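Below is a filled-in request sheet from our internal design queue. Each sheet records the structural input a requester submitted and the sequence that came back. We keep these sheets so that new team members can see what a complete request looks like end to end.

REQUESTER: design group, bay 2
PRIORITY: normal
MODE: inverse folding
CHAIN LENGTH: 556
BACKBONE (tokenized):
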């Protein structure tokens, strides 16, 4: 239930704090006093669309904060979404800024308007005149039936089966589309596959060939300089002979001076290393190719690789990846007939599963429809519509995500008349009562703790208004019910009555919300009965209405 609602800087509201108790509560006031702003504020804090035009003139931002008490299914559903309900309470706030920014918080942590909107149905439901219009939309009727049936499990199974059928149909469609006019493309793929296979590409080969090409193009320079280096080492008067003589001389000296032995060892090691380097130079020089045929072969191979890269990818690996891709496509095409056969067989299996799931869902709806008709008729009788017949019509259709039937609510307003769609025969007042009957029937299945009715009594008066008032009061036995109304019959039945009035302060309009005592309620009821002219008679009538309401409550 709603524990507290705080509204700041929203249109004509500077600051309003409501702390509605349990039971049946009414909000009333003159047209334009700000009742709609309270509803807009509730929608805003619960993630609804909000325009910066809601911000009060002169203020930088508007803020709405709502504290809810939750338990049972609602608390469990919130905790499943990761929202901790400490002490069984949830605090939601939303700030709207002039630059269009919107900041939402749940229990003090940042959230999004979409996330808040997702949890709103677990906290509070607002029913207005537009909900009556929902009764005129046959597409919405199936949702109401499912809400009464509590068939979430069967609906999930049906949707899952339908999604599998749809996925298989998409695969079949893709294969059939690929087969049409693809023969020419397949021939191209086969040519490309053959071209790449003949090249026998190897990742890294191009870099190796570039290095080899550089070596071959400068083979003469490399050979000449390598031979020259060898001569410097091993030629006449080369470094090797000089080093050998130096080592010999040092060896004689070291025989008498032990301190020279490390230097002698160094020269001897250098002589060994020089020998090794000279031999490697000789071998390398002998292996250098100066065959122009080798150069041509490397250049030709590089051109082959570059041609393939220009056609199919920037690197050898990219070409090979493309090769794998088109090879798979050719293979898929060559096995498409077999794949189509498998998919069509699987499609039949999944379509049968869909049919079975839809049949189970249909059964829940049929049973629920029969019970819903009986309970709605009972509620309508309590709302002074005893002669009205209400019927749920289920029309078979092709099985899909939502099952295998469409639903429609039919009504016969008077005895002897045939059943017709609500949109063709129901008046505004009748729609209000039918909607209230539905809400009454569905209330037990709905985990939400607070129901708000925004002038749902439009088009109703007299005896029907009294019946609606009694029904709203009966609903408040299990739910917190808040109703915005212009009807005194409904206001009189309330456990608490708030007056919404607009005052002028410092030259500006300001909306105030006042929880009225009995004397103030009498005055407000008299105004609702008599309009502008409040007389002793209207005041007496208001008093009598309050007394009758108290008696009626005691009977309930």
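RETURNED SEQUENCE:
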């Amino acid at each position: 239930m709603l524990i507290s609602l705080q509204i700041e800087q929203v249109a004509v509201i500077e600051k309003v704090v409501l702390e509605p108790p349990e039971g049946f509560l009414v909000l009333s006031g003159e047209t334009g006093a700000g009742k709609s702003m309270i509803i807009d504020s509730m929608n805003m804090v619960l993630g609804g669309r909000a325009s910066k035009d809601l911000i009060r003139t002169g203020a930088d931002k508007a803020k709405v904060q709502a504290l809810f008490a939750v338990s049972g299914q609602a608390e469990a559903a919130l905790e499943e979404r990761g929202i901790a309900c400490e002490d069984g309470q949830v605090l939601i706030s939303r700030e709207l800024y002039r630059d269009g920014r919107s900041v939402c918080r749940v229990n003090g942590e940042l959230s999004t308007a979409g996330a808040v909107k997702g949890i709103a149905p677990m906290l509070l439901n607002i029913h207005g005149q537009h909900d009556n219009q929902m009764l005129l939309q046959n597409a919405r009727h199936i949702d109401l039936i499912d809400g009464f049936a509590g068939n979430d499990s069967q609906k999930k199974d049906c949707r899952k089966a339908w999604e599998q059928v749809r996925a298989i149909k998409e695969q079949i469609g893709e294969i059939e589309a690929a087969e049409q006019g693809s023969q020419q493309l397949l021939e191209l793929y086969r040519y490309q596959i053959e071209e790449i296979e003949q090249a026998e590409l190897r990742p890294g080969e191009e870099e190796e060939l570039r290095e080899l090409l550089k070596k071959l193009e400068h083979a003469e320079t490399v050979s000449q300089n390598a031979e020259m280096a060898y001569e410097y080492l091993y030629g006449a008067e080369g470094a090797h002979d000089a080093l050998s003589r130096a080592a010999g001389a040092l060896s004689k000296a070291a025989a008498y001076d032990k301190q020279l032995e490390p230097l002698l060892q160094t020269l001897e090691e250098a002589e060994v290393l020089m020998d090794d380097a000279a031999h490697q130079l000789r071998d390398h020089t002998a292996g250098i190719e100066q065959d122009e045929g080798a150069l041509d072969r490397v250049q030709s191979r590089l051109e082959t690789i570059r041609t393939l890269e220009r056609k199919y990818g920037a690197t050898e690996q990219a070409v090979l990846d493309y090769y794998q891709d088109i090879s798979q496509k050719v293979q898929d095409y060559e096995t498409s007939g077999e794949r189509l056969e498998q998919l069509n067989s699987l499609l039949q299996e999944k379509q049968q599963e869909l049919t079975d799931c839809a049949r189970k869902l249909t059964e829940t709806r049929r049973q629920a429809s029969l019970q819903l008709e009986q309970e709605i008729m009972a509620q309508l009788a309590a709302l002074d519509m005893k002669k009205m017949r209400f019927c749920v019509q289920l029309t078979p259709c092709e099985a899909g995500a939502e099952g295998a039937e469409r639903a429609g609510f039919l009504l016969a307003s008077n005895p002897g008349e045939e059943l017709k769609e609500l949109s063709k025969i129901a008046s505004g007042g009748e729609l209000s009562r039918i909607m209230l009957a539905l809400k009454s029937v569905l209330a037990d299945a709905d985990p939400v703790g607070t129901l708000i009715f925004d002038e749902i009594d439009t088009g109703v008066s007299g005896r029907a208004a009294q019946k609606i008032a009694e029904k709203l009061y009966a609903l408040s036995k299990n739910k917190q019910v808040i109703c915005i109304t212009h009807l005194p019959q409904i206001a009189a039945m309330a456990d608490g009555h708030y007056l919404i009035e607009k005052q002028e302060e410092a030259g500006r309009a300001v909306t105030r919300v006042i929880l009225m005592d009995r004397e103030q309620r009498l005055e407000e009821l008299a105004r609702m009965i008599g309009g502008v002219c409040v007389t002793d008679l209207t005041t007496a009538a208001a008093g009598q209405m309050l007394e009758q309401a108290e008696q009626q409550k005691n009977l309930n």
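SHEET NOTES:
- The chain is about 60% helix and 20% strand.
- Residues 3 and 20 are 6 Å apart (CA to CA).
FILED BY: M.R.
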